[in-house]
């Protein structure tokens, strides 16, 4: 685990940040190999970084991180980087790989004939906002979650998308 955001989040925050980032934001990143065991490593890393947050926000973040890291391992087959930015109640998670995006990534609908393919649909349904960012040498898929307050409700705050 390394401090900073790493390549996968840097380009996004420099070019099109999904929300204004405060100077006190906490950030970490982790590099993992393109092997199935890396999904568990990524989950553990995200759980550790998000330990101050409520249980529900952490669980959604872990699910969506698992989906994106699995997609990167299955489709890009390159090293993967996971970046986490925690800024008050906003959480940005980025998953980057070294395969440049060739087509727009869109969520798939439910299919009874396909065993998978619903990862991006989960990201779209459960996150405040999400997107992709291509850069020289790879791409990043990212999502934002808004942590719940003590009453279990999302704070009354809008999220600005670039």
Which labels suit this protein?
Heat Shock Protein 90, 162 residues, globular, alpha+beta
Protein architecture, described:
This protein is of the alpha+beta class and 162 residues long. It has a single domain (2-146), classed as Histidine kinase-like ATPase, C-terminal domain (Heat Shock Protein 90, 2-Layer Sandwich). It is built from four helices and six strands. The protein has a six-stranded antiparallel sheet, sandwiched between helices. A hairpin with a 2-residue loop joins strand 5 and strand 6 (138-146). The radius of gyration is 15 Å and the shape is globular.
Largest sheet: 6 strands, antiparallel
Detail the poorly predicted runs. 155-162
CATH architectural name: 2-Layer Sandwich
Average pLDDT value? Answer: 81
Overall shape: it is: globular
- Order of adjacent strands in the largest pleated sheet: 1-2-3-4-6-5
Helix fraction? 25-40%
* Tally of discrete structural domains: 1
Task: Count all strands and give the number.
Answer: 6
CATH superfamily: Histidine kinase-like ATPase, C-terminal domain
Q: What structural category arises from helix and sheet content?
A: alpha+beta
